[in-house]
């Protein structure tokens, strides 16, 4: 049953990624791929939140942790797209935009995860 939940949640995460990226790209054109950045930071926050809840609150359902953490967040976030975005920026505009985007992605995702973990650990 847990495997089925992870698979369904992963599919929903992928659909959510496609939808969020489409909405952001439709409303904004710019140098940096903002959709992927927002998705990875938001997904990191959600994974941190679920992890914080699971660690802090005994009895947090393992099925929920697996479905949301591994499934949804795994389908939603996208390291491979972020990596290609870095290389594309580097090739098109030189190293500075690529490095900037890489740093923003890494720092933002770690900060998002930390904030989510903290929020899940409250109480």
From TrEMBL:
The chain crosses the membrane at residues 32-55, 67-87, 99-119. This is Fluoride-specific ion channel FluC. HAMAP family: FluC. The keyword Acyltransferase does not apply. InterPro entries: FluC. The keyword Cell cycle does not apply. It comes from Nostocoides vanveenii. Na(+) binds at residues 74, 77. Belongs to the fluoride channel Fluc/FEX (TC 1.A.43) family. It catalyses: fluoride(in) = fluoride(out). Signal peptide: none annotated. Keywords: Cell membrane, Ion channel, Ion transport, Membrane, Metal-binding, Sodium, Transmembrane, Transmembrane helix, Transport. Fluoride-specific ion channel. Important for reducing fluoride concentration in the cell, thus reducing its toxicity. Na(+) is not transported, but it plays an essential structural role and its presence is essential for fluoride channel function.
């Amino acid at each position: 049953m847990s495997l089925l939940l992870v698979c369904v949640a992963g599919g929903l995460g992928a659909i959510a990624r496609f939808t969020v990226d489409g909405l952001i790209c439709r409303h904004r054109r710019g140098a940096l791929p903002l959709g992927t950045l927002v998705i990875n930071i938001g997904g990191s926050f959600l994974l941190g939140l679920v992890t914080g809840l699971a660690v802090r609150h005994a009895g947090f359902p393992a099925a929920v942790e697996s479905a949301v953490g591994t499934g949804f967040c795994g389908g939603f976030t996208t390291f491979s797209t972020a990596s290609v975005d870095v290389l594309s920026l580097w090739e098109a505009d030189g190293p500075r935009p690529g490095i900037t985007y890489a740093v923003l992605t890494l720092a933002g995702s770690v900060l998002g995860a930390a904030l989510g973990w903290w929020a899940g650990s409250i109480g």
